[in-house]
Structure formats: C-alpha cells, structure tokens
Amino acid sequence: xxxxxxxxxxxCAAITSFASAQISPGDxxxxxxxxxGMDNCTNCHTVGKTLANDRCLDCHKEIQSRVSLKKGxxxxxxxxQCVECHKDHHGREFQIIRFDKKNFxxxxxxxxxxxxxxKVECEKCxxxxxxxxxxxxxxxxERKTKTFLGLSTECLACHKDExxxxxxxxxxxxxxxxxxxxxxxxSHENANFKLVGAHTKVECAQCHKKTWDNGSVAQFIxxxxxxxxxxxxxxxxxxxKQECTQCHTTESWHQVKGEQFDHSKTAFPLxxxxxxxxxxxxxxxxxKVKNVSxxxxxxxxxxxxxxxxxxxxxxxxxxSRKDGGACESCHNEKGFIPAQYGLAxxxxxRFALVGSHIATPCGKCHIEGxxxxxxxxxxxxxxxxxxxxxxxxxxxxxxxGKMTNGCETCHTIESWQTLKFLHDKTKFPLRAKHAAIxxxxxxxxxxxxxxxxxxxIKCNTCHEDxxxxxxxxNGKTECERCHIDKSWKxxxxxxxxxxxxxxxxxxxxxxxxxxxxxxxxxxxxxxxYKPLGAACVDCHxx
Length: 542
Prior knowledge:
Strand content: 5-15%
Order of helices and strands: HHHHHHHHEEHHEEHEEHEEHHEEH
Number of helices: 15
Mean pLDDT: 87
Strand order of the largest sheet: 1-2
Low-confidence stretches: 5-21
Distance between the termini: 198 Å
C-alpha cells in the first residue's frame, strides 16, 4: 500500500515535468532567469498571441524612454520586434545582445564616429566610469559593464578640459575630431586681438604661455594687449617716449614706416661695410648683455673710436704714434684689408722699402706673433732693424765683426745674387782660369753652411797632386814654381836653373817624355821626374 502511494507521487511529478518541458522551449539567459516558471510566462508572452514589444519595454524602461524621445539606436528601427534581435530560451550563458561591432553603423545613435574617433575601440568609451545618464547609473555594476547606453555626446564626458574652464563654447567651435592641436575652426579674426603682419607667423605658444591654472595650461583669456610692451620688452630701455607704432610696423621690427631705418639721421651714419651689418651685430637685444661698445643692451653712446667696438687687431703696437694708433690712418670702412698704408707712408718709417723689398708681400715680413699676449702680426720692432731681423744668416758666424755695412757689404737690396764683393780684396785674387770657376767648386758646404772663411789657399787644398809627392820640398809642394793659373800646361819651369841636370847641346831639343817615363805609384799612373839617374848610361845603354 505504501509502495503504491510513492508510485503515485513519482508519476504526478513526472507528468508535471513533462508538461513544463512541453510548454518552455528552454532555459532563459542569466538576466531573465528570475522569470523562469509557468507562472511567469505571461510576463513576457500574451496568451494566444506572439511576443509584443510593449511587454519588453515594461521592464526595459531605459529603452522605452529613449524610444519615446526618439533618441538612440532603438528609436531608429521602427516597428521591428525586439525578439527579432534578442532571442531567449537558449540557456543561461546565451548572448542575448549580439551585433557586429566592427561593422556597426554608429551614425544612427546620434554620435557619428569620424576622424580619430573612428579608430577607437568600443570599450575605450563604453565603460561604467563614463556613464552619465542617471537611469543607467542605477544599473548593477555587472550590467553597467555590458550596456552601451548612458553616454553623453559632450566632448568633456570623455576628454579632460585642456583649457580648464576658460571657454564656454563647445569644443567643436574650434577643434575637429581629426586633430586636436590644430584648432582649424578657430579664427583670430573673432578675437579681440586681430593678427596682422608678422604676428600671423608667430606660433600660438609664443604668446599663449602656460600661466593659467597655476601654470599647468596655456592662457587664452584675460590677456593684456593694450600696447606692444604687453608682450615685447622695450629694446630701447625707455629712451624713446613715443609709441612703438610711430616708428615700427607689424610687418617687421626692422621696417620703419615702410622703409629701412635711416641711420644717417643718427650721430653715427653707416657707410660701406657698416651698411651690410645686421643691427644685432652692434645693438644687443638683451638689456642685461653688453653690446659691442661694452654698454648694456641696445643703446650705444661710445662710438667715436673704432676701438669702441672693434678689438685692436695690432695689440696696441701703434699706441705710441702721435695719433694714438688711430685705425683710420691706415684703414677705412670699405674693408680692413687691404690697408691704405703704402710705399709713401712706409718711406717715412724706420725701414723705407727699396729694391726687392718693394715687391715683397707685407705678410712675409709682418708675420704672426704674440703681442700683448694676443695673436697679431708684428709691425713694431723695438730693436734695430737689420737684414737678420727677417732673413736667416746663411753664413753663420763666419763674418761676425768683419762686415762694416752688414750684409750690404757684399750684397745689394736689388738682388741677393747681385754681389758687391771683390775676390781681389782677399788673400786669393782670382786670376785666369780661377776667375771662371763656380764658387761652389772651392767653397764647400760643412754643417749646412758654405765655407768662406779659413780656407787653405794652397794649390793642393783644391787640386790633387799630379806628381804624387815627387816634388815636395820641406814638406810643401810649391806648384807655382813651375805652373801658372792661366793653364796647367803653361810652365815657368827652367830645366837649367831649377833642375840638377841642365839641358845643353842635343839634350835641349829632346822631348820631355823621352826621359820622363810613365810609372806607377800607389796603383796610380804618373810621370816620373825624380829621382832620375844623371849618368849617360841611365838613358843611353852601352
């Protein structure tokens, strides 16, 4: 009996489960699971009819309110049924909201994705932190992470206000979604300060500096621009009382009322090379920095001397002159080089230019050196100017104390090779063949110096003894006893007075070589003169 009762209960449960399975097509997804059960079917379904949108919107009031206001995506789909896109009864994990994010057309929702927005991932904008609509903010945190509703179309809903509240206009008044930094829609014509002339070429940041919000962002409002000094430092340091615009234009600071500034109206008219200088080469822009005259800033009062602006290139070498070394004595404004100092002026100096010196370039004598601890060409010599001041003494100390007129004792200024020197005044006058010999044949080089003093004037100093010492007498070979400098073969020798064997009779006509035969001495072939036998049999065999 008890067993039959249990069978009845199990049978009823099976029948109920079978009936439920026959009515419900499947489990609802997680968000609708609270509507499970036969008692809740009519919450969504109308008996005898298909699903109706009004039942969906009874729960999803956030959709209903936006459709009523004709806002958002759902307001654009017309009479389309919710179930056509959002199907259910496919299980708890079924994705009830399904669409192609990559190809979704964002334009119908009221916020067109263009410019850089078109490249932004959906999740970058659709995040719980950016939801501003109060009805969506009321969602659970889990639901807010999945919804695409509740965002504002205002720029500041996603982006930080880079101007920190300076402007009340919409961002799109000046900026586009293509690029933020170039405010292409902004025109300075609509501002209180119109940009003209050179101002049109100035970068925004040069005027709009980071002085707003404790120096964090550029300032665009409440800027002073009533006069030029609002932005520009007065380069004249208040020396001119009139407004800048009385002399200058916005086209160029250097352009004065349509023309270049006329420097001739000042105390220092510009001429020649000074005309080519840029203003800032003389006039310093920074009021705290010294200009070329040594004064601070733009204004120059010291300009009476060249040295007020220019460094003395000569290291004060000419300060002792009567004019105090005035630059204009030698130079002019056409150029520092060439100097206007010529032969006429040089003739008045300690060293007048004559002869070959006239054609010598200045730099050959006036070489670089250290003057007053500075590099400069040497123009002033304290010592006497002699040849060796510029020229090397190629003779060394050979003529020390012997030259009554220095180098000019022998040489001329016209040419070093043109000599006043006469060999006849030496111990060895040049005669006959000696007069035709090149100097270097006798004057040899020793230690890189040609020797002129202390040369032995004996014949064998230059000439080789052709007799191999046969005629040495008392340690000397006196060539001049027999030979003359006209020719070696022209003889002074007299056999009857100078030899021990006088030539008489038939002997006087005998050629020399009949008696004086060739012989060899130290592997050298010579003519033998002595000793010779004086007996007849020495030459005439028996």
